[in-house]
Write a structure and sequence with these properties.
Blueprint lengths: L2 H11 L5 H11 L8 H12 L5 H13 L3 H16 L17 H5 L21 E2 L1 E2 L4 H5 L4 E5 L4 E7 L4 E4 L5 E2 L4 H14 L2 E10 L5 E2 L2 H10 L8 E12 L2 E2 L5 H21 L5 E5 L6 H13 L4 E6 L7 E2 L4 E5 L2 E10 L12 E7 L2 E9 L5 H13 L4 E7 L12 E8 L5
Parallel strand pairs: 1-13, 2-14, 9-11
Antiparallel strand pairs: 3-12, 4-5, 4-7, 5-6, 7-8, 7-9, 9-10, 12-14, 15-16, 15-18, 16-17, 18-19
Helix pairs in contact: 3-5, 3-9, 4-5, 8-10
Length: 430
Amino acid sequence: MNLTDYIAKHRSTARKPTADIRSRWASRIVARNLHQQAAAGAQAYLRDYGKGISTAKVIALAIQAEVEGCDDMARGFWAKAFELETGISAPATASSDVTSRSNKEAASAPLAVAFPGLPAHLQPGRIITMQPVDAAGTHDDYIHNPIYCGQPKRDGSRIVVIASSQPVVYQSRSTSILASPSMSFDGAFRRAAEAKGPFVLDGELVYLDASGGEHRTGSQAAQANATNDHPDARVRCRICVFRALFANGRDLTSADEEARIRGAEIIVGIAQGILIKAGVEDYDIEQVPTAWTKAQKHALVCRQQDEGREGEVWIQRQTRYLGGKHGEIMVRTKYLAETEVVITALTPTTVAGRPFGAMEVAEAKPDGAGRPLGRVGTGFSAEDASEIAMLVARHPEGLRILVRHQGRTETGMLWHARFLRIIGPVGMVA
């Protein structure tokens, strides 16, 4: 069966889209103008909201798109439903159907483009981004050290923008070429390149919920809205720019950090101005603020703490841009919480010498474990693991432990939890 036959078969038996599908169409598709982006709009929706999506729901979205007169977008959804059901990739455009699994990557992945005027190490697919390491010092160490400037840590996915007056390409931290987050971004960056020449921006792609919370995907932001009783609230997609790696005809990787940040500011100003002038509401481009002075750095830390953000990134002002991790040149400080939890189960493992893989934990309640909080699989030695396994077996009512974590996920699970110490069995005074 090819895609055309598949569509004909399911279109004739498909049910009318439910109220839930119509709501998603309004709040997630129309609100972001995805319905005006043909098959690319379907691909953007599936990228942001399609994790674990069922074939039936994708078919319902295809039918809704047809009802709305968006046939090209509908075909994008049909192609995804066909792939989910058959395991065979099909093109989202009306060309001949792809019937070979081996064609999947070629059919879906954007192709890298060579950019005249950019050095080889700044071509799409070749850019090695600079990565922070966990800070060895405290926030005060970096506030009072004049060789560091600071930026708020953004909680998204790394994205590099390579733009000219014609092509605009996006690259991930792993050097993979990414699908465009939005045609709105493409147009804004293209116009900025017409004004200032080709450029390369290093940044983060984030999705914002109605409360301004940062998320890695649109589906996570939408889930946060639903959890906070705002199921129809819009999700805003933002590219947060840290610095420019190439601007004004100059390779800035060999310059200092201030030159890279200043080089990005004008480009971001132009691109964001274009989005504002065009009335685009759900996509924006931010120049991530930089704290240079001691007072600015102190204010940055206070603001991050007050807003419940993840932390800060500190970088030495005079450093070249070096791909990868390079010790104290770029570091991150985080806000970590400590929480008492109860072990409810130990997961099995195939690793020799280990009694378990991870600890399933839940809220610590006076009368026993409460709501599940996920798993803790790091922070304990072999000796710790043996003691934990022994105590869990001895105390089936539950064992209390202390964990350190970086907050909670959208569903309330502990985020990056790490074992600290054993407190004692449930009911025993610590």
